[in-house]
Structure formats: structure tokens, C-alpha cells
Design a protein that fits this description.
By secondary structure, the protein is α+β, with helices and mostly antiparallel strands. Helix content is about 35%, strand content about 25%.
Length: about 400
């Protein structure tokens, strides 16, 4: 009996120490990655040696316990990555994350708008605790097989996921060109299974057309590496057809590269206009200004909704404060903080929240959002704001009415 108690006690201690080691190893992982770095990206990293001396000695003791008692093989790389991820997650900031070396390549390809996958944009549906398809890219494998905006992703390759697994699902959906990924989606209480062949996706997502009364319309689903130039090209195409005004649709645009949003603001605002204030943790301000004379001199209306976030809010806030556009729709999401991506010496990365942004009138946006000049709700018959028939689009109709 006494022998069993002793045995159970040892097992309990091993479990506790194994859990605790994840936290402790984090500090060592960060030290090993950062110790020889003076500057990465635009951030200076401070040498943490003084802080970690005691932690390193403590770590050594716990590692000896693991080596002595842990049943199983130890994968040093997985142990390090798991420790770092746990450490970063401990900040409690959903926008700050560690990106492994393998994930970093895919992450940067996504930012550039070119990747191997099935061609969908995704968002989080907190009410249903699932990942939702925000939109599908024209000509993409997802579009071809019938995946639709608003579909809720239940599982990928047989593994079920929740709203907290956006990054994981994104990684699982991408893969080798020509390979197959199996998706199970929920649509109107119906379970539908798809087998989709992964292809190289080249995003050219800025779409435009001419509406009644020579009103130009440009939709921007996200801000990627070429969005500013794509927008300019599309505007020039419409302008050759003598448009008299312009609607820019930012609804369901979750953001992206800030500089691309500012580039579009530059096309519309006067040279040297303040577009954005970036404020760091010490209160230091960096001012972003327009650098060129405007090329767009027609009346502009922006369409926004509760899914308009981040870089989209920067653009909306700048044009609203400077009196260069009217805003129509519903109050935006309210993501008013900026992340920078740091590439570390081993090829991994850290996306970290570094600044809060403010509009030209120094209004904060984080957890507040941009309030439209004209608040227009969609009809109650619209069940999903990502799928709105033109006949039910009261927000677009209001914008057209204002521009007539």
C-alpha cells in the first residue's frame, strides 16, 4: 500500500513538472533565438541575459527531472516551438503570435497574395463557435467545387475545429500543389462534404464595375501586397468610361497591409495630409502623411459593416476625418492596433502588436470602430452579411441615392 502511494506520488510529480517545464523552457527558447540579434525588422531587441540567468539555472534542474523520469522520446524542436508558442499566448493578445519556420514561408506568401490552397477567405463566427468562409476567390478550386460564402467549416481532413482554430485551419487547408484536402461544411443546417484539389492561387481581388448614373464601384476584400496598384488600375479603367463618382466597398474586409490602405488614401487626399498616427507603448507618435497630389477628385462613398477591420478602418477613418468621403453602413469592427512581423535568425517569425493607431483627428478606433455618417442596416431577411443580393442591399442603394 505504502509502495503504491509512493509510486502515485512520483507520477503526479512528473506530470506537474512536465506541464511546468513548458513555461520554463519558453524563456530559454526566447533567449536562444534573440541573444545574438540587435535589430530585426524595424524593432530593436534588448539582450535579455540579465533577466534569464536565474531561469536558466532553474531550467537545468527541471530538465534533469524530465530526462530521468519522462517516459517517451523528446523532440527538442517541438519542445522548443511549443514552449515559445505557449509563452507568446500567455500575453493574452489574439493578434500576437509565434510563427514557426515552416509556417513563416506560407504566412509571407499569404501576405503577398500568392499561395497554394483552395482560394477562400475565412473569418471567425463566435456565435456558432466555428470558422466561416467569408468569400471565395473567382476561378479558385473552392469556387469550382461549390463552396460558398457563409459556409461554416466543421472539419478539415476529418479533424473538427472551433472558432479558436483559424490559424490551424488555414495551415491545414494549404499544402502541396495538386494534393487533395477534404472539407466538411455546414450550410443551412445541412452537412456537405467536399474534396478540393489544391492549386497555386494568384489573387487579383480588386473588382470594379459601373453602376447607374455613371457611378463607379470598386470592391476591396483585403489589403495584400499589390492591392494599392490593383485599385489604381481598376480606377483608371473606370475613369476612362467617364464615371462621375465612386463607391468603395470595404464591407467584410478584415484588413491586411497598412501601407496598401494608406496608398489608396493617398490617391484621394491632398498632399501632406495627415492620414494616420501610430502611437507606441511609450506614447511616441509616428505620423503617416499623403505623399502625392490626389488622382481621384470625384465624390467618394465608402461602404462598411461590422466585419470591416484594421487597415480598412484606417482608410475609412482617414477619409472621413479629412472630409474626402462619406461613410455608409454599420459601425466597423474596432481593431485599432498594429502588428509587425519580425523574421528571426532561425527563419521563424513573431507577429507582435507594437502600436495603436489613431485617425487624423486623433480618434481611437480599437474596440470602438468607425461610425458611419449614414447608419444603414441590411434588411432582416438577410441572414448572412457576406451574401447579400443586390435587390436587398440597402447600404449600396443608399450610397447610390446619395451620389445621384
Amino acid at each position: 500500500m505504502e509502495e503504491n502511494k509512493t509510486k502515485n506520488y512520483k507520477i503526479a510529480m512528473i506530470v506537474i513538472l512536465t506541464v511546468f517545464i513548458t513555461f520554463m523552457l519558453t524563456s530559454l527558447g526566447i533567449l536562444l533565438l534573440f541573444s545574438n540579434v540587435e535589430q530585426v525588422g524595424s524593432l530593436v531587441l534588448v539582450n535579455p541575459n540579465k533577466e534569464t540567468k536565474d531561469i536558466s539555472s532553474e531550467l537545468d534542474k527541471y530538465r534533469k527531472v524530465i530526462d530521468q523520469y519522462y517516459l517517451g522520446d523528446i523532440d527538442e524542436e517541438k519542445l522548443k516551438e511549443g514552449a515559445i508558442k505557449g509563452y507568446i499566448e500567455g500575453l493574452g493578445d489574439p493578434y500576437t503570435e509565434y510563427i514557426s519556420k515552416d509556417e513563416m514561408k506560407e504566412y509571407m506568401e499569404d501576405t503577398k497574395g500568392n499561395f497554394v490552397g483552395i482560394g477562400i477567405y475565412m473569418t471567425i463566427d463566435y456565435k456558432k463557435d466555428m470558422i466561416k468562409v467569408l468569400s471565395t476567390i473567382d476561378g479558385s478550386p473552392a469556387k469550382k467545387v461549390g463552396i460558398k460564402e457563409g459556409d461554416l467549416i466543421k472539419s478539415v481532413d476529418g479533424v473538427e475545429y472551433t472558432a479558436d482554430d483559424l490559424n490551424t485551419i488555414s495551415t491545414k487547408i494549404k499544402g502541396e500543389e495538386g494534393s487533395i484536402v477534404k472539407l466538411t461544411v455546414l450550410r443551412d443546417n445541412e452537412i456537405i462534404e467536399y474534396e478540393v484539389k489544391r492549386e497555386k492561387i494568384i489573387v487579383n481581388q480588386v473588382e470594379g464595375k459601373i453602376l447607374e448614373n455613371n457611378i463607379g464601384y470598386i470592391q476591396i476584400p483585403s489589403f495584400d501586397e499589390t492591392t494599392g496598384d490593383d485599385f489604381k488600375t481598376k480606377y483608371e479603367e473606370l475613369n476612362k468610361k467617364n464615371i462621375k463618382s465612386l463607391i468603395i466597398d470595404l464591407r467584410n474586409n478584415g484588413g491586411g497591409i497598412v501601407s496598401e490602405a494608406l496608398k489608396i488614401a493617398d490617391f484621394i487626399t491632398d498632399k501632406d495630409s495627415v492620414l494616420l498616427y501610430e502611437v507606441d507603448k511609450n506614447g511616441k507618435e509616428e505620423v503617416k502623411k499623403s505623399e502625392n497630389a490626389p488622382i481621384i477628385n470625384v465624390p467618394v462613398i465608402l461602404l462598411v459593416n461590422e466585419n470591416t477591420a484594421s487597415s480598412s478602418e484606417i482608410l475609412a477613418g482617414a477619409l472621413k476625418d479629412l472630409g474626402k468621403a462619406k461613410i455608409v453602413g454599420t459601425t466597423t469592427y474596432g481593431k485599432g492596433i498594429i502588428q509587425q512581423i519580425l523574421t528571426l535568425p532561425d527563419g521563424s517569425g513573431l507577429k507582435i502588436t507594437t502600436d495603436e493607431y489613431q485617425t487624423p483627428n486623433k480618434k481611437k478606433i480599437h474596440k470602438v470602430g468607425i461610425e458611419p455618417d449614414e447608419i444603414v442596416e441590411l434588411p432582416e431577411t438577410v441572414e448572412d452579411v457576406t451574401q447579400v443580393k443586390e435587390s436587398e442591399d440597402t447600404q449600396l442603394k443608399k450610397a447610390i441615392e446619395m451620389l445621384k
